[in-house]
Amino acid sequence: MRVPFSWLRELVELPEGTTPEQVAEVLTSLGLKLEVIHGSGVSGNLVVGRVLSAEPETHKNGKTVNWCRVDVGSHNDPADGDVPASRGIVCGAHNFGPGDLVVAALPGTTLPGDFHIAARKTYGHVSDGMICSTTELGLGGDGGGILVLTGELAEGAEPGDDALRLLGLDDVTIELEVATDRGYALSMRGVARDVAIGFDLAYEDPGAPSRVTGTSGDDYPVTVSDPDACPVFVTRTVTGFDASAPTPAWLARRVEAAGMRSISLAVDVTNYVMLELGQPIHGYDRAQLQGPIVVRRAEPGEKVTTLDSTVRELTGGELLITDDSGPIGLAGVMGGETTELSGSTTEVVIESACFDAATIGRTARAQRLPSEASKRFERGVDPRLAPVAADRVAQLLAEHGGGTIDEGRTVVGSAPEPSAIAMPVGLTNRISGLELDAARVVETLELNGCSVDDPAADPLQVTPPTWRPDLVGPYDLVEEVVRVVGYDRIDSVLPDAPAGRGLTAGQRLRRRVGTTLAGAGLVEVKSYPFVGTPVFDAMGVVPDDDRRRMVRLANPLSDAEPFLTTTLLPGLLTALRRNVGRGIDDVALFETAAVFLPGASPQGAPLLAPAQQPTEAEWQQLNGALPAQPLHAAGVLTGRRTGSGWWGTGESVTWADAVESVRRIADALGVVVEVSAGELAPWHPGRCAVVSIAGEAIGHAGELHPQACRALEVPPRTVAFEVDLSALLAAAPEGARGPRFSTFPVAKEDVALVVEEAVPASEVRDALVAGAGELCESVRLFDVYRGEQVGKGNKSLAFALRFRAPDKTLTDKETAAARDAAVASAVGAVGAEQR
For the chain, N or C: smaller number of CB within 10 Å? Predict the structure, then answer.
């Protein structure tokens, strides 16, 4: 909202010397945040001048200019012979002549755009200033010629007078950011009221119902078929109107200073009253109306041509203004072209109505047609303003357009009465921490326009004013009291934190997973959970794969990604591709997050009443409509696992690193997992491991398929893993703790076992672990040998076994027994033979 300071001073009698900056500071403290203070951009010697002579001169370049002598009063150069006291100015425009009053910018003046005026030699003369156009002064217009002062501007103007004051260029405009719940501040009336509150000044409401004049009978006929959407509709008529009458300069200046364009007297007056009171107004050419005005809901497929000459097809449910010819306007948004005021209009029917905020907001957004009117209606307009605003428009049109106001006024409906709100007297102090007595609370509420039934009662029965539809509960009233008393009076005291119970068991386990992966060198990322079908095509996922059954979003951020993801790999691979594209060759990323799995028969969520808490059955229905959201843990790695340097050549990541990451997660949670060969896109069929718990698959790990790497634009040999973290957490032993360390020395044993080539090393390891018993601390594969010594079709796997007891040092006999038990387990489980 742009607030011209001179207009504001007319509505509120500010103390002498009050600056716009002080007003802006007060308004900001009351919740109307300052955006910027606009000046005219003009300063210096801008004066009224009378053209004494204008002699055209044509120069070699073919351009004709006027060599002018301009009388600028006390700023004239002395007379010199036949040359009267005046200033010589070169001007290229030709729409003025001797005797005209113009605006002259003398040397030292600064015009908008930081354009400095100085005396300079041009076209054979020294031009001692500039004769200005409206464009050069920042007043708008097409800049086609000089601004010649006529009519109201010329009355009483003399050469040398201050043109800044005459044209209103000495005024400033305060631009405010208005929150959606403070629609009253989209008017001079509302801003002035807050200024009066902030400066503790008397305030006379220009929109008070007492300003409505008496009438005799009805005016133009109106029928409202939906009173809930249009509780009040008022019409008044002005006849004998002169559409060619100019807009008064002061009114045009205020409309333009407030950010709107001056168009014609009728349009400017309706805009002026809207800016003044906050009530949008629309005018109809009575000669173009056919039958009574009807306010009704639109039918699907109806069309209306709005003032911007656009034919708009309606979906049904929009609120329409119609007559016998059909739709003539979108209620509260924009009028129709067929009844538009024009240069031939002599009878103006004034519409001043109140419309439902939600209806207007939906219509404006559906038609992509935001307007000054809809911006106000969708925030809530004072329903008692309609007759006041209609009278104000009629009075201005008659005064400046030479018309006559008809005696009648049509008023359909009445303003709904706001409901009283019960507010405990001590609520303000309890919420804000202030110490206000009941009298101060009541006084502050009444300053805001509220009425209090009994100031001595507790709770107070407070009725909000009609211009504040946002005040619906006691906490809204608390905010009104606090903003007036001052937010700066609230002490900055942190509340006492309640004693917490610490992290839950599940939270501790999830943090342990993240810490484990981060300790292994992976970096945690967070990805958007949105995907499209092309990424599954790139990953090579077959059409009947369950991962392609996804939940579609009703309002996605991007049409290219309208689904909720069923796997974390797309987001991780996108992050990997971005990092590699920015020059990072060695990348290891992981993420723990939920995926979204639709149920077998998804059901819609119920629409619940906002005024009451859902019932148990409604809660169950809401939860039943949600997709399953298990936690997954996933990671992607590419490049080198260890860097190269003076110590030697680095090692590239392999499928084993992806499998090892899963093992680390399982070990951190105390869960035993089985790893076996498998096949699933996007992994390479020969380098893909299935991770299982008690025979049930919970994830996969390994190297990505070369075709998937190319399609996803990630480096070859990229590896990845993804497991169902919820399943791992469920399998974790109750009360699982971190690893416990023994202070006693470790006993080391190495064994080499010969097995068939087809036997996975993981199965051999699992057998060793199962046989080694509780003393076994770790089993690690450190060498694989294939050659003549183990025979064709066989391989030798060397494992490092580590044993440790929590309460003593192990003897050689105890260590050997544990080793032999481990080897015997491997012999029995996979047919291993010890070398």
Answer: C
DSSP state of 593: E
Amino acid at 463: T
In sequence order, the 6+-apart residues with CB closer than 8 A to the CB of 239 are 346, 347, 403, 404, 406
**β-bridge pairing 523-524 and 587-594:** parallel
Within 8 A by CB and 6+ apart from 350, the residues are 235, 236, 237, 238, 270, 281, 282, 283, 390, 393, 394, 397
Q: If DSSP codes are grouped into helix, strand and coil, which group holds residue 353?
A: strand
Question: What would the mean pLDDT of 49-56 be, rounded to a whole number?
Answer: 94
**Which pLDDT score is estimated for 142?**
61
Q: For residue 404, what is the enclosing H or E element? A: strand 404-405
Per DSSP, the residues of 100-120 read -EEEEE-TT-EETTTEE---E
Query: Does the pTM of the predicted model rise above 0.85?
Result: no
Average pLDDT, the chain: 92
Token output for 645:
């340097």
Instruction: Give strand ranges (E) for 406-534.
Output: 410-413, 421-423, 451-452, 460-463, 523-524, 530-531
What mean pLDDT do residues 354-361 have?
Answer: 94
Q: Which two structure tokens, joined as six digits, stand for 462?
A: 């407070």
Distance, in Å, from the CA atom of 113 to the CA atom of 39, rounded to the nearest integer, reads 12
Predicted confidence (pLDDT) per residue in 245-256, tens digit: 999 888 988 998
For residue 723, the model assigns a pLDDT of 97
Distance between CA atoms of residues 830 and 269, nearest Å: 95
Is the pLDDT at 504 greater than 90? The verdict is no
Q: 778-800, pLDDT tens digit by residue? A: 999 999 999 989 889 999 999 99
Q: Write the CB contacts of 60 (distance below 8 Å, at least 6 apart in sequence).
A: none
CB 662 within 8 A of CB 676: no
Cα(226)–Cα(296) distance, rounded to whole angstroms? 6
Contact 661, 522 (CB under 8 A): yes
Secondary structure element (H or E) that encloses residue 33, with its range: strand 33-38
Q: Is the pLDDT of residue 737 over 80?
A: no
Q: Give the C-alpha separation, 588 to 356, whole Å.
A: 56
Tell whether the model's pLDDT for residue 224 goes beyond 80.
yes
For residue 826, the SS3 value is: helix
Q: How many CA atoms lie within 13 A of 194 on its CB side?
A: 29
